[in-house]
Amino acid sequence: MEIVEEIDIPLLDKQIEALEALESPNINEVLYGGAAGGGKSWIGCYWLIKNCMIYNNTRWVMGRAVLKTLKETTLNSFYAVSRQLKLKQKVDWTYNAQSNIITF
Fold first, then answer.
1. φ and ψ at 94, to 5 degrees?
2. What are the angstrom distances between the C-alpha of 23 and each of 1, 70, 85?
3. d(C-alpha 104, C-alpha 92), whole Å
4. C-alpha–C-alpha distance, residues 41 and 33, integer Å
5. What are the pLDDT digits (tens) for 38-48?
6. Cα-flanking dihedrals φ and ψ of residue 90, to 5°?
7. What percent of the chain has pLDDT over 90?
8. From residue 34, how far is each of 15, 16, 22, 29 by CA, in Å?
9. pLDDT at 2 over 80
10. Which residues of 33-53 are buried (b: 16+ CB within 10 A; e: fewer)?
C-alpha cells in the first residue's frame, strides 16, 4: 500500500531515504536525527499510520521521553499526516486522550 504515491505529498530526500530503509527487508535498524523541522515526527507518524492500515489488529508504539512533549508535538504531527492522507477522525481512527491510544 503506497499511500505516498496515491496522493501528492512532497518529501525531503532524507525522508524518502528513511522510508526506503524502514521498508527494506535487509535493514534492521533505522536512525534518523537532526534539528527541529527535519521531518522526523512526520515520517514516524506516516510510517506508523501506513502499517496500522496494512496490518489489522496489530499494536505499534511511538514514544518520547516526556509524555507531555509527545502530546504537544508528535500528536500534532499525527493529526497533520492524517489530514494530508485524507483520513478522518472517528471514521478511520479514534484517539482516547485518557489512555493515549489511537485505534484504527
1. -130, 150
2. 11, 24, 19
3. 6
4. 10
5. 788 899 999 99
6. 75, -5
7. 63
8. 12, 15, 17, 17
9. no
10. eeeeeebbbbbbbbbbbbebe
